Amino acid sequence: MVALSLECGAAVVTAACGGTPFSIDEASSDATAETSAADASGDVPEAADDGSSDSRGTGNEAAADATSFDAANLDAGDVHDAPNFDAGDAHDAGSLDAANLDAGDARDARDANDVDARPPFDASGDGSDAAPAHCGGAFACAPLVPTGWAGPFELSSGMVASLGCGASFSGAILNGNAGLTAPPAACGCSCAAAPAMPCPPAVIDFYASSLACSAMGATPCATTTLNPGVCTTADALATCDAGVAGVVMNVPASTPTQGTCTPLPKVTVPPYTWTTSAHACGSSGALDPADCPAGNVCAPSPAAPFLASLCVEQAGDVACPTPDPSTGYSVKHVFYGGVDDQRGCSACTCAPVVGTCSVSVDQYGSTDGGCSGMPVIYQAGHCQPVQQPADLELALTASLGSCASTLTTPTGTASPVKPMTFCCLP
Question: pTM for the complete prediction?
Fold first, then answer.
């Protein structure tokens, strides 16, 4: 006779039940049944039908279907309570599962000759007894987080990543990006208006003759410094032996003081963009091996919009912990936490201001420093006879030079920094 032991213990046949095995003990006997040859074969005499529905069915019919009858789904009241279970129920008992049968079922499942109508328990694993889910049915088994990695994480990535977290993922939160696009800078350069640059005072040279004035490197016999707009009395005859030819004057050209222009650089750095954003949330619960296979733990499962697989993370751009793309954390994603933006333009500079000064000397007939009477105007760059002594006045007109800016070009690039490697289950 075969009896079911519902406790998980030593067994002839074992199966998983939430991590604790249960067994079928063929040596134990039913407290109310007698052993007979019919028990082993399943061929039992037909039970008498007194007109009421009997849960045991009609003898051979019950035995014929008992091989698919799994005593564990039938509870104590099913067989014992005849009104709720008739002969047809016994015939269809293949849809019942052996796991729910308690002591009352074993006690009452007998035929008319007091023979156990139930066949021996089939421990061959024909697929009718599905193993219960691991981790209590709440989570799923996942590989251990490798040494040096953090996780597990749920990961969302795309043009716009989800910013929330799943119910079981309220741990560490990591945000990153991938696919950096950073166009070069737009460059320009101009110069501020040149400031007004004054022309310097002019040193007037006097010579005893035109020949001496035009000779290269000749030394003047008299000099006088004229400031713009200031009337000055000059008497070259006091030092120059001019003779009858008179004194010759040379008015030199004048160059204004060199000035500078203020450069006005124009640098426009376009904003950089990312093609992919990522948001990862770490598991909030402790990882327990529970009834998972060796090397695995119970871990929460991600839900949409997150990827379907769990991931682990490590700082840097590193290889995944397993090279096998079909097992373990092997699917690599790299995201970045920032940008080193070195985009810019070459230096903007302006060439020095080069202006000119228009120089002339007005000679008056007066000699008292009053510069009265009609003047004679002498232009610069010529040796010209002049009356001496006489009042002289320097006239200077400055012209501003233009500022030439340099050509500027884009420089530098933008590079992603602070990489994070996520390796996910296939």
Answer: 0.51
